[in-house]
Every structure is written in C-alpha cells, then in structure tokens.
Amino acid sequence: MKKYISFFRIRFINGLQYRAAAAAGVVTQFTWGFMEILLFRAFYQSGSQDFPMTFPALVSYVWLQQAFLALFMTWFWEAELFDSITTGNVAYELCRPIRLYNMWFVRGLAVRLSKAVLRCIPVLFLSLLLPPPFKLLLPGGLMTALMFLLSMILGTLVVVAFGMLVYMSVFYTISSQGIKLMVTSLSEFLSGAVIPLPFLPDGIRQAVELLPFASMQNVPFRIYSGDIYGITMVKCLGLQIFWLFALILAGRLLESRALKRVIIQGG
Asked: Which of 74, 8, 68 is nearest to 33 (CA)?
C-alpha cells in the first residue's frame, strides 16, 4: 500500500505544477458556465413548458459541473498510457513489483484531483458572489452536504474505474483512436455533461439513469441542488457503489486476461 500512496503523492504534486494552465482553465470554465446558464435562462423565461429542474437547481448543477470538470470529464485521457501499450513500452511497467491496474488507477485519480484542486475553489468562490438567480446556492442542510461529498467520492472513483476499463481494452486493439472517439461521445452525453439527465424524454431517461455514466457527475450534482433526495438518493448511492465494483472487476479481468496473452516486441 505504501508504494501506491507514494506514487499517488508524486503524481499529485506533479499535477500541481501547472498553475498557468489552471488559471486559464478557471477563466474558461467560469465564462462557459455563465454562458450556459444564460442559455438555459432564455428557455426558462419562455414559459412554454414545465421544466424538470427548478432554475436555481439547474444553476447549481452548472456551476458544480464547471468547478469539478477535472474530476468528471470523460474526454480526458492520458496519451502516455495509450502509447505505452501500442508501442510496447508497457513492458517497463510490468517489470515493477506492483500491479499494473492498481498503479494506473492511482495515477488517474491523482492527476484528476490535482487538476480539480487548482480550479474548483476560484470557480466556486466566484459563483457564490454572483447575484440571484445566477449564483451557486449552498446545500439544503448538513445531511445533504455529507451525502454530496460521499457521492462525489463515489462518482470520481467510477470515472477513474471506467477510464481504466478503456485503457485495458487497448491491449486488444491496434489503435486507441476509435475507442476514444466512441467512448467520449457516448459517455459525455449519457453522464449529463451536455444537458442534465432530467431533461431527457421519459423512458429514455429512466434507462440512462441505470447506466454507469449516470453514476458519475449526474448523481452528486443533483443531490447538492436538491433535485435528488430521500429514498431516491439512497438508491442512486447504491447504484454508484454497484457500478464502482462492477467496473473495477471488469477492468481487473481484462488486465489479467490481456497480460496472459500479451506479446511485446516479439517476445
């Protein structure tokens, strides 16, 4: 365990060095979030239909989405890991007295956390200073805040576990480009990154909420905004736990099968 903690610390500290990129990201995410809120505001003011989320809940969802983008962006991939598999350099990793899946899992978690730490605080602070109805609201109570934190942890781990499944699948392909394009397009929409899942049509929404993508950013952000509560919240947390273990199990299975058959540099 100590070796994984040390590796996590190294990758986390390394990620904190990119402060200029983080500052640019804060400006971009705050601007994008405000534009997205204004767009939704225009729809809400039209009054042409009932909306599945209240506008304050939607605003909180958008600001949390921008603040914690680094944790939940499914389009972020470490090219170095893909290249190590396709070029055969993964052989150097296999020489280490550690399990490949565990090391890459810790690495992915550290990179995401380091990016999020630098960007989330400024975005959250600025969004709290905005006037109503464009400001980020505080959670409804202590229990809501605690459930939000728990769901955030589970959601982040689900994202990392899903990424590991993609990395391990590259052992069975010649190129990673097709997998990355397909997975990114699918996961971004089904996780609620494009539009919140409550805005999907009935029937489709219920089916999507059972998929692992809905256990990423969808659940914690909606718990925070009060859109998910009570028994529904408990069910969503249970689903997050289920998908976390399912994805880790599937990733480990792919790893063990791939390493038994992998051929590196003809040897």
From this structure: 68
Structural domain tally of the chain? 1
Average per-residue pLDDT in the chain? 87
Residue 259: closest CA among 175, 167, 176: 167
Environment class of 263 (CB within 10 Å of its CB; exposed 0-12, middle 13-18, buried 19+): exposed
Query: What φ, ψ does residue 65 adopt, rounded to 5°?
Result: -60, -45
The answer to whether 223 touches 198, Cβ cutoff 8 Å, is no
Instruction: With a cut of 80, say whether residue 63 has pLDDT above it.
Output: yes
pLDDT of residue 265: 57
**CA–CA distance, 103 with 135 (Å, rounded to integer):** 39
* Cα three-residue angle 103-180-201, rounded to 5 degrees: 115
Q: Which amino acid is at 80?
A: E
In a domain, 31, yes or no: yes
Determine, yes or no, domain membership for 119: yes
Sheet strands (E) in the chain: none
Residue 6 placed within a domain = yes
Whether residue 139 is preceded by a cis peptide bond, meaning omega within 30 degrees of 0, is: no
Q: Which domain holds residue 180?
A: 2-261
Length of the chain as a residue count: 267
Residue 266 maps to a domain: no
Alpha-carbon Rg for the chain in angstroms: 20
Give the count of beta carbons closer than 10 Å to the beta carbon of residue 176: 20
Q: How far is CA 18 from the centre of its chain?
A: 20
The pLDDT value recorded for residue 223 is 94
Dist. CA 259–CA 256, nearest whole Å: 5
